[in-house]
Amino acid sequence: MATAGKVIKCKAAVAWEPGKPLSIEEVEVAPPQAHEVRIQIVATGLCHTDLYFLYEAGETKLFPAILGHEGAGIVESVGPGVTKFKPGDKVIPLFVPQCGECKFCLSPKTNVCDKNWISQGEGLMPDKTSRFTCKGKPIYHFMGTSTFSEYTVVADISVTKINDSAPLDKVCLLGCGISTGYGAALNTAKVEPGSSCAVFGLGAVGLATVMGCKAAGASRIIAVDTNKDKFIKAEEFGATEFVNPNDYSKPIQEVLIELTKGGVDYSFECVGSVTVMRAALEACQRGWGTSVVVGYTNVADMSTRPLQLVYGRTWKGTYFGGWKSVESVPTLVNDYMAKKIKLDEFITHTLPLDRVNEAFDLMTSGKRYSVHIFLKLAS
Which of 141, 117, 143 is nearest to 65 (CA)? Predict the structure, then answer.
């Protein structure tokens, strides 16, 4: 392409400091270096993790930054040593890399990858530098992806090629939340046919978890949320019952234990609240119940009484739903195209990049039962 090897100037939403709205700026995106890929982002979803980093994580050194980690796009150019991608390929950048060589990638027990772990956490590329500059200042990368930019650069182990026919403005959602919730049920909990499940929180991740429980054959899927309007959407994804904690004077775990005569086989916390994490665990059946922490928070410790675990309950966490990213995401894309999983039904708003702050407002307004917003960056 004509831009290969050159600095590209484009629009991006820059987070200059924590707690402040994003600013639409012209940024410079340097060419990819060895084992890197430069991508034109076509569409990107908004995830609560972006919101958390900007408004809730507190002071951090990783500003200014370009956020975003649920994107899909087209390869613009590749750096030296890249053999699996070429300009024109449709791809999804991945915040969970898969090098295929480290002890984690070689183990079937996890989907974590050890390579580039430190540099990604520092907001940098593997060589400890940035490919973004704005107004003469280097800009940090975010989760190795930075999809709130018309162009981004990622490591070649943090991107996967997908079906050429895939609609990028839909499959971008498989970059994080939908895959995480769906995989939490299928891969992490390994929900069994005929089992009972409770899903706490009916945002995008929660609904994807409901979808995963249904796909696994659960016979009873109890959706738990304080917004009764969300049950209509939850039912569409497979929920069989709805429980609103505000309707009861007792703890929600006691309510679920009574409803199920002992507790559910599987529970999923999709809120990011340590209080809800405890409730989800204690709502599980004594002896074999499994509770999966899907929501994220880093501001408080979770706790429970030791006997909750001694009695046979299992408390687990999930990272990107347990999917081995590079090899699994293309399969999820194909499953969507074969109508085995839903994506269109998650999308409630489509906005251009320069309305990203409005998108965050929609996410936090509390006025909607809607699920997912994405930004259209290119046609």
Answer: 141
Q: How far apart are CA 156 and CA 241, in angstroms?
A: 43
CA–CA separation, 369 vs 233, rounded Å? 8
* pLDDT classification of 302: cutoffs 50, 70, 90: confident
Q: At 42, which helix (H) or strand (E)?
A: strand 36-45
Sign, Cα dihedral of 97, 346, 161, 377: negative
**3-state DSSP call for residue 361?**
helix
pLDDT-derived band at 373 (thresholds 50, 70, 90) equals low
Task: Report, as an integer, the average pLDDT of 210-230.
Answer: 96
pLDDT in tens, 156-172: 999 999 999 999 999 99
CB 352 within 8 A of CB 182: no
**d(Cα 214, Cα 50) in Å, to the nearest integer?**
28
Residue 59 pLDDT class (50, 70, 90 cuts): low
Q: In the beta sheet, which residues pair with residue 222?
A: 198, 241
**Please, which pLDDT band fits residue 376 given cuts at 50, 70 and 90?**
low
pLDDT of amino acid 300 = 78
Are the beta carbons of 293 and 275 closer than 8 angstroms? no
334: phi then psi, degrees, rounded to nearest 5: -65, -35
Q: Is the peptide bond before 64 cis (omega within 30 degrees of 0)?
A: yes
What is the CA angle 56-246-366, rounded to 5? 40
Euclidean distance between CA atoms 332 and 112, whole angstroms: 18
Q: What is the pTM of this model?
A: 0.93
**Cα end-to-end distance, the chain, whole Å:** 17
Q: Dihedral of CA 158/34/67/11: which sign? A: negative
Alpha-carbon gap, residue 247 to 226, rounded angstroms: 9
